[in-house]
Fold this sequence. Notes:
2 domains
Amino acid sequence: xxxxxxxxxxxxxxxxxxxxxxxxxxxxxxxxxxxxxxxxxxxxxxxxxxxxxxxxxxxxxxxxxxxxxxxxxxxxxxxxxxxxxxxxxxxxxxxxxxxxxxxxxxxxxxxxxxxxxxxxxxxxxxxxxxxxxxxxxxxxxxxxxxxxxxxxxxxxxxxxxxxxxxxxxxxxxxxxxxxxxxxxxxxxxxxxxxxxxxxxxxxxxxxxxxxxxxxxxxxxxxxxxxxxxxxxxxxxxxxxxxxxxxxxxxxxxxxxxxxxxxxxxxxxxxxxxxxxxxxxxxxxxxxxxxxxxxxxxxxxxxxxxxxxxxxxxxxxxxxxxxxxxxxxxxxxxxxxxxxxxxxxxxxxxxxxxxxxxxxxxxxxxxxxxxxxxxxxxxxxxxxxxxxxxxxxxxxxxxxxxxxxxxxxxxx
Length: 411
């Protein structure tokens, strides 16, 4: 999937009014610029995944990725501004420089007349900077600067997922989609229970030769135009399979398989089950679903492992302020779901990367070094599995240390 600076099927942001109501200053943004470029698909292949990207090109996404946490006056964010100016994007270049000034000055006037789409402003941290500039906590300048540095050091990009049945369409081999028939390296064996995780400590009670259900597959290259995608390998991908035992133990176990390149994949048909003796039909093949994806910024739960690394030194007022900032991310997520032309559970954050969480319980991150690898439903209607990965393993595509860390059975 290629990304173009001119995407004829760019989607109107139906939630722009809501974003402006959250306090986003989008002065001077035309109706044309309130379109997000989405991923291009070859005209002879059905579209399996639509990605609403923040940047029009992968080159720019890489520059923005480098600038996310860098507000130094001569660092990656300044270099990004210079690049935009050299490309004739003077208004957006000025906005990037305005974010640097606002970061250091806590002056709301520094953010007047910012340019660019609301999605791009969000990725730059504009709404957060506005909140910092308007906060009464800046009266204690030294403490507030430390809090600011800790806060912006926590921000990570992620990709949210929504999904809907693909209907008669058959996705291209090697593309990203949920359920249906998987693509697997030629000659590989279908995953069986014997290969699955043992998170519920009851796998020995299941038949080892029972076939797993295909949940979905993800081609890293299709995320190459996103800010989050800059932390992924350029080639390869992974597939997820699950097994659900619903009759006696109430467990879900997982098989995660990586593949080096889409060129080695062939479409496979799932083994036929006369009946699902374990999951009351939940392990039977499900219709293929297309993915609608939207890149966002994410923040960790202040009470989770990552949040606790810094929140322990915060005052009660700073913790309340952090919660307000955290809800800016939640409002963007909810706005994305409300913009869909099909229904999705608004309480669920499915997707890849960052600190995505889809549970009403505590943050399931195993430690402060881990990010969310994926949050996925194992069935279109229920059950959510959380996976974590050490931050250092993302760029290599090494999945050996991916951990299955939580399951919401009823979600």
